[in-house]
Design brief:
Length: 116
């Protein structure tokens, strides 16, 4: 990379990308040749992979749940679980609303002094 003194910054800086004057064809790369008998490990061959982990027993259920939650149906992820999730979300919103009302009541009470 070319560097030079910059009058603007007062120090050495990169002078920009240098472009070649002419473009030539890229050099052809040699094809990779594997010797006969080369075995490429797959994800679940215990004897060939150091990071082998057996699939869980409920792998099919997990895949089905993944498919269920990835369906494009305009619902946020926290509501895709069904009516139970809707109930939990509604309860959370209600508790947050009560907390907000409590904050405003506190602000109102603290804004006006008590009469003695």
């Amino acid at each position: 990379m070319p560097f030079g003194f910059s009058q603007a910054s007062g120090r050495l800086s990169q002078q920009g990308v240098a472009t070649p004057k002419t473009f030539v064809a890229a050099v052809a790369e040699a094809e990779v040749v594997y010797p006969k008998g080369t075995i490429f490990p797959s994800a679940h061959e215990a004897n060939l992979s150091a990071n082998y982990r057996p699939l869980p027993e409920n792998y099919g259920e997990v895949v089905q749940k993944m498919r269920h939650f990835q369906v494009e149906n305009k619902l946020p992820i926290h509501l895709k679980g069904g009516p139970r999730d809707m109930m939990l979300f509604g309860t959370t919103v209600a508790i947050c609303g009560l907390g907000l009302l409590g904050c405003f009541k506190f602000y109102y009470d603290m804004s006006f002094p008590k009469k003695a």
